Amino acid sequence: MIKVAVLGYGTIGAGVVEVLQKNADSIEKKAGERIEVKRILDLRDFPGDPNADLVVHDYNIIKEDEEIKIVVECMGGLEPAYTFVKTALLQGRSVATSNKELVAKHGAELIAIARAKNANFLFEASVGGGIPIIRPLTQCLTADVIEEISGILNGTTNYMLTKMENEGMAFDEVLKDAQAKGYAELHPEADIEGYDACRKIAILTSLAYGKQVDFEDIHTEGITNITAEDIRYAQAMHSSIKLLGKSWTADGKLYAMVCPMLLDNSHPLAGVHDVFNAIFVHGNMVDDTMFYGKGAGKLPTASAVAADVVDCVKHSGKNIKIIWDSEKLTLSDFGGFERRFFVRMPAGTSEEAIEKAFGPVEMVSVEGLDEKAFVTGMMKENDYNKAAEELGNIINMIRLD
Ligand code: HSE
């Protein structure tokens, strides 16, 4: 019997306990041992909950309990999660976590401690919820040089953009709906400003290249500027607007960014709706691969955490080697990278002035919207910025992928 402690009895923590208890028999067959949740750490009490007796409020009770071999961290945030996880690893325990903030910031260090202690630090659920993507990157695709990762990495914003697209709902209304469904982070900025997606692409990029990519270095824009009008233009262009976390290599340079992008409806990521996430990975040998599933929500995320617990049991006393060194990987300035831009300007702007600033453009019109909207040719981001500044009055700009 392997005894486990779960830190945090919120949505995900409660989900992990539910998965481990409901599927206990089938999990036992796969892990080779029975797994039992012995303690749950939370500041709150849960009267009437079937696991109320397992709840403790003091981490020291878990720390000093030598029967506990695996710690599951679902508290979120950096502290006290970091201190508790590091303490557990230094004690030689294995840890499974869903906490992308923790992994993005301290992943390299925690992986190194786990290795030194012949234990494991596993974090499949930290990116893409229930979608297997960490193992594919660290195990199945290691023969490839990864040339691109493009992901719909945030379920809340994808749910919101889908609702805005299908039902014409207003931004605030869809945000409340997503929060009520348990998809959103505690502070909505983490989702809608792209911070959550930023940490996730930082984790994936660090794993793809085996070195530290600091999330602070990744240019990040959220979806707060996306309006019902943008969605109508996108529909007129047979495209969808998706919040993408991307990293890619070109001419030996590595770039990364998070921003809303216009995807032609033929793009595989354009068909990813609602709370679903998808991660497109291009390797130089395997070519295109895509990983798809529920990227947020209680049981999908808990399923990935519980599978990490099973792996910790299967590899008891043996470290699963994950290459992610603390040496920093420097990102290149994407100002020199060429792409096309969709731009909206006031109706009074002359097409001559537009073409003078941006070069030849394709005009886009939507019935009832009295504006000048257009798609530029391929141009460098720096040149776009210069032209936009020169002309002024840009209502909105969305990059084309
Ligand atoms: N708030 C996150 C999302 C939860 O919506 O994707 C999963 O990380």
Structural key phrases:
single chain, 401 residues, alpha/beta, 10-stranded mixed β-sheet, 6-stranded parallel β-sheet, 36% helix, 27% strand, binds L-homoserine
Written overview of the protein:
The chain is an alpha/beta fold and 401 residues long. It has helices at residues 11-22, 24-31, 59-63, 81-90, 100-116, 134-140, 155-167, 171-180, 189-192, 195-209, 228-236, 298-314, 351-358, 381-391, and strands at 2-7, 35-41, 55-56, 68-73, 94-97, 121-122, 146-152, 211-212, 219-220, 239-250, 253-264, 276-283, 287-294, 325-328, 338-339, 341-346, 361-364, 371-376, 379-380, 396-400. The strands form four sheets. Strands 7, 9, 10, 11, 12, 13, 16, 17, 18 and 20 form a ten-stranded mixed beta sheet that branches. Strands 3-2-1-4-5-6 form a six-stranded parallel beta sheet, with helices on both faces. A hairpin with a 6-residue loop joins strand 17 and strand 18 (371-376). Helix 1 (11-22) crosses helix 12 (298-314), helix 5 packs parallel to helix 10 and helix 7 crosses helix 8. The N and C termini lie far apart (50 Å). The mean pLDDT is 96. L-homoserine (HSE) is lined by residues 129, 154-156, 183-185, 191, 196, 295-296.
